[in-house]
Design brief:
208 residues, globular
């Protein structure tokens, strides 16, 4: 079994999830406020696992059913990865900081926090493009146990990021509130996406 599938899933999952957005800002705010952190992180992580399963499992299996579709999806995934790499470098050119979303003075109920976490997770249209289509397309080149390892690597990235951000918010906030930190992160993401694009493109070319 190819352990590289796990690392590739971890790399792609990390590159997709570590970005400035409403979901991460919400998790950061809950972590700083110390309000329902475990529940919020679990909802975000569980949502990712569901979408990763749909992408790597359902779509990945469907894409593998026809070699021509699989090759087309691989080339499309290569282009998407280059696009995401370009977008990361563009963010690095004009860096922003990850700041917690505004909240009132009163503590939220558990139900409100969970509902908000569900909203920022599933009402973002980009999450379906990133997690389901792109990740599913890349996962399609793996078969059987290797695809499971790829999906586990992507899920591990989500686990480490959300719980690390939520429970480490007070410690990490001084770093992630600096634009220069995100410039370094986005450059790293861009390089990672570029390497994945080269790998996927090479695979598609070699399977002509």
């Amino acid at each position: 079994m190819n352990i590289l599938a796990l690392w590739e899933g971890l790399a792609l999952g990390s590159a997709l999830i570590i970005a400035i957005g409403a979901q991460n800002a919400f998790v950061l705010r809950q972590g700083l406020a110390r309000q329902h952190v475990f529940a919020v992180c679990t909802v975000c992580f569980g949502g990712d696992v569901l979408l990763i399963s749909v992408g790597a499992g359902g779509l990945g299996t469907a894409f593998r059913a026809d070699p021509l579709i699989l090759q087309g999806v691989a080339w499309a995934g290569t282009l998407f990865l280059w696009f995401f790499a370009f977008r990361a470098f563009a963010r690095a050119a004009r860096p922003r900081a990850l700041l917690p979303v505004a909240s009132g003075d009163r503590a939220e109920s558990l139900g409100t926090a969970v509902t908000s976490a569900l909203a920022v997770t599933f009402l973002n249209p980009h999450v379906y493009l990133d997690t389901v289509l792109l990740l599913g397309g890349v996962a399609a080149r793996f078969a059987g146990g290797e695809r499971i390892m790829f999906a586990c690597g992507a899920a591990l990235a989500s686990l480490l990021w959300f719980y690390g951000l939520g429970f480490g918010a007070a410690h990490w906030s001084r770093f992630i509130s600096r634009p220069q930190t995100w410039r370094v992160i986005d450059i790293g993401i861009g390089l990672m996406m570029g390497l994945l694009a080269v790998s996927l493109g090479h695979w598609a070319w070699s399977h002509n």
